[in-house]
Amino acid sequence: MTDLAAMTTLPYDQRTKAFLDYMDRGRAAGPVAKSEQPGVWEVFGYDEALQVLGDFRTFSSDMNDLIPEDEKELASAAQGNFLGVDPPHHTQMRELVRRAFTPNVVARLEPIIAETANRLLDGIELSADGTGTFDVVGEFAAPLTARVIAKLFGIPEKDHGMFTIWADALLGARPAGELGKADESAVRELGELVRFASAYLLGIIHERRAEPQDDLITALTTAEVDGRSLDDHEIVGVIGMFVIAGHLPSSVLIGNTVMSLDSHPDVLAEVRSDPGLLPDVVEEVLRWRSPLVRDQRVAACDTELGGEHIPAGAMVCVWLASAHRDAEQFERAEEFDIHRPNRSRHVAFGKGIHFCLGAPLARMEARIALTALLERFERVEVLPDSGIRFHPSIGVLGPVRLPVAVRGNTPTG
Ligand code: HEM
Questions:
Q1: What's the predicted TM-score (pTM) here?
Q2: From atom 17 of ligand 1, which residue's Cα is the shortest distance away?
Q3: Can you give the pLDDT at residue 70?
Q4: In three state form, how does the secondary structure of 32-90 look?
Q5: Smallest Cα–Cα separation from 49: which of 375, 350, 368, 363?
Q6: How many domains does the chain have?
Q7: HSE (CB half, 13 Å, CA atoms) of 260?
Q8: How far is the CA of 335 from the centre of ligand 1 (A)?
Q9: What are the angstrom distances between the C-alpha of 13 and each of 17, 18, 19, 112, 338?
Q10: pLDDT above 80 for 175
Q11: What are the φ and ψ backbone dihedral angles of 181, each rounded to 5 degrees?
Q12: Between the CA atoms of 255, 258, 262 and 264, what dihedral angle is there, to the nearest 10 degrees?
């Protein structure tokens, strides 16, 4: 089998092909397989993916023993992060955050996202004939999604850059092709950054407790479930989780949507004439090129899965990208088809009790970003030879740098 780590060093197009071939070969051999990496099992089938993600008792999200013992601050910053926590603690933490992060809060972000997107596009320099080139992820999608999270929490404008740095550093903690444990030395190096970010955020939380504002930090300080509320360190963890979980995959989704439309000019033409189709496009991109390609669990006890015996303590790597190519679920799965009837059956946002809390926001950001791009430019063309760079992790499939050539819809002065 192809070495996953080696795959991440390939040019983006070869990497995508090699990765998807790996998924297809894996699935053809069976829905579940023991990995070449010791202690790791890989899940390729759609039904088996649902089985793992839907059974938190057998497949735990608690990977706390991956954090080095002496990194107390790192562990404490993760206190409010309920991604890696099982019920009953997960149920209570998720409900506390859900009470603050309401559909109304997300709806109120819509004009802010549109304004931020347009302001970022205003900053793109075009020549006198209205043409130009820019990095649509680095200069548009990534700053957009980072700023939206910063705005959501009420972080002052001047500090928004810190969010991107924090998220990128935290996401880089796992070696590129590693399916199992995080690299201890890399995690250790993060200590200083996390200490700095935590101290900064604690300061803002104290300010909000003293002087409430109309933002998510204030809402988190007042949210209550059964007489329990979040303490300051838990709120820091919640913010960290939103930064990690929310910023990168959302910007990669925008990049993958630009790439998918670029490689399907017929669909692009259809969407230009009917922008109401954009939510369908985004939904199919989530299936066809999901930004996060895997989810991970630890077997809490000995169990059977897809005909394989999984021992307690084994790491279970669920390949979401493979589930999306399972022919039993998706006809002509390898084709990008925005009209397929069952595309929302994808698991790009996970499934079960850890289902993505930010899914409505991510969908909205992608729709607004693409609307702004297509309205602003009559031509958006990916430049394949100008240094497209994909995220280095094997868990992420999509661009962090995506140069495009554009032509403005109206002459610029
Ligand atoms: C395209 C963008 C996104 C993708 C593909 C994505 C994907 C996912 C996935 C697969 C999970 C499940 C993890 C698991 O099962 O262990 C998840 C959980 C989560 N996501 Fe997202 N996400 C995206 C955007 C966002 C945004 C914008 C936010 C917040 C602003 C967010 C917040 C969360 C949170 C808080 C969880 C944890 C839920 C829990 O453990 O109960 N995500 N996301």
A1: 0.93
A2: 356
A3: 57
A4: EEECCCCCEEEECCHHHHHHHHCCCCCEECCCHHHCCCCCHHHHHHCCCCHHHCCCCHH
A5: 350
A6: 1
A7: 29
A8: 25
A9: 6, 9, 10, 34, 22
A10: no
A11: -75, 155
A12: 110
- pLDDT grade, residue 412 (50/70/90)? very low
Contact assessment for residue 23 and residue 325, using Cβ atoms and an 8 Å cutoff: yes
**Joined tokens for residue 401:** 């740098």
Strands 40-43 and 315-319: parallel
**324 with 330: CB under 8 angstroms?**
yes
Task: Say yes or no: CB of residue 83 within 6 Å of ligand 1.
Answer: yes
Residue 76 has pLDDT above 70, yes or no: no
The predicted structure's pLDDT at residue 244:
81
- Probe target for ligand 1 pocket from 356, 367, 397, with the most ligand atoms within 8 Å of CB: 356
* pLDDT tens per residue, range 101-144: 999 999 999 999 999 999 999 999 999 999 999 999 999 999 89
- Is 413 domain-assigned? no
210 CA to middle of ligand 1, Å? 30
Find the domain containing 163 and state its range: 4-408
Of residues 182 and 211, which shows the higher confidence score? 211
Question: Measuring CA to CA, how many Å separate 342 from each of 292, 328, 338, 408?
Answer: 20, 12, 10, 35
Contact 238, 152 (CB under 8 A): no
Least Cα distance to 237 among 12, 78, 66, 62 occurs for: 78
Say yes or no: CB of residue 319 within 6 Å of ligand 1. Answer: no
> Could you tell me if residue 213 is inside a domain?
yes
**Ligand 1 neighbourhood includes 358 CB (under 6 angstroms):** yes
Domain at 256, CATH number: 1.10.630.10
Which residue's structure tokens are 């013992």? 69
Q: Residue 225: inside a domain, yes or no? A: yes
Q: Is residue 204 part of a domain?
A: yes
**CA 373 to ligand 1 center in whole angstroms:** 25
Any atom of ligand 1 within 6 Å of the Cβ of 105: no
* pLDDT of residue 193 exceeding 90: no
pLDDT in tens, 294-342: 999 999 999 999 999 999 999 999 999 999 999 999 999 999 999 999 8
